[in-house]
Amino acid sequence: MTTLALSSPVQVEARLDRPLSRWLWLVKWVLAIPHYIVLILLWIAFCPTFVIALFAILFTERYPRPLFEFNVGVLRWTWRVSYYAYGALATDRYPPFSLADAPDYPARLTIAYPDRLSRGLVLVKWWLLAIPHYVVIGFFLGGVRVGLWSGGLIAVLALIAAVVLAVRERYPRDLFDLIMGLDRWVLRVAAYAALMTDVYPPFRLDMGGAEPAGERSP
Fold first, then answer.
1. pLDDT category of residue 218 using cuts at 50, 70 and 90
2. CA-CA distance, 101 to 218, in Å (whole number)?
3. 206 exposure class (CB count in 10 Å sphere: 0-12, 13-18, 19+)
4. Does residue 63 carry a pLDDT above 50?
């Protein structure tokens, strides 16, 4: 007998925009600077909210809802900027300056609010249990060297896709699916490490713009 496994509480979805500018990717690092400045401030604020949430979970088994929504918003904003810039380069639509979900934007992130979280796990999951994932996503984000330039696998693949776009006027669909799988893995680990879920991220590359509906298990 088979049952349908529940989908991940962390939902990362995106669509590949068409058409894409052949050359805009060359200056997106400049265009994204205002977002980078805001994100630095948001991530500074993220750190104390993480600590407060840790103690709240430890004593009450709950992640304070306002802090949860703020931290999801930070991750969501980060994902949109990454998707626009060198985490995918898969849209030319400028990201909104907002923590809220933007249903019409090509890149979306949602995280289901947990009713209860484990007191025991909160002490170890963000550092000890997540170490194997940190090793893997470290390669995704910053473990590749090309000549004098050092960057992660995701950035390298995004730049390859951009060069193909410049030459052939199309973003390779296979590369998009792979990049999405890598980005999805990173964001699942980020949500787990940020204490937003007790569901351990799978060691699995779920490729493509849409989340898998679920998988059948015995």
1. very low
2. 36
3. middle
4. yes
| Residue type at 173 in one-letter notation | R
Q: 43 with 76: CB under 8 angstroms?
A: no
Q: Distance between CA 43 and CA 58 in Å, rounded? A: 22
The predicted pLDDT at position 147 comes to 43
Nearest by Cα to 136 from 181, 177, 174: 181
Plot region of 108 (φ>0 → left; ψ -120 to 50 → alpha; else → beta): beta
CB-based contacts of 32, cutoff 8 Å, min separation 6: 81, 84, 85, 95
What pLDDT does 143 receive?
60
Tell me how many domains the chain contains: 1
Distances from the Cα of 122 to the Cα of 44, 52, 54, 60, 198, angstroms: 21, 12, 7, 12, 8
DSSP designation for 127: I
For residue 157, report the phi and psi dihedrals to the nearest 5 degrees: -65, -40
Distances from the Cα of 195 to the Cαs of 9, 11, 56, 144, in angstroms? Answer: 12, 16, 11, 29
Distance of CA 210 to the CA centre of its chain: 13
Q: Is the peptide bond before 19 cis (omega within 30 degrees of 0)?
A: yes
Q: Which amino acid is at 205?
A: L
**Pick from 162, 153, 210: nearest CA to 182:** 153
Tell me how far apart the alpha carbons of residues 98 and 2 are, in angstroms, rounded to a whole number: 42
Task: Please give the residue range of the domain that contains residue 194.
Answer: 3-217
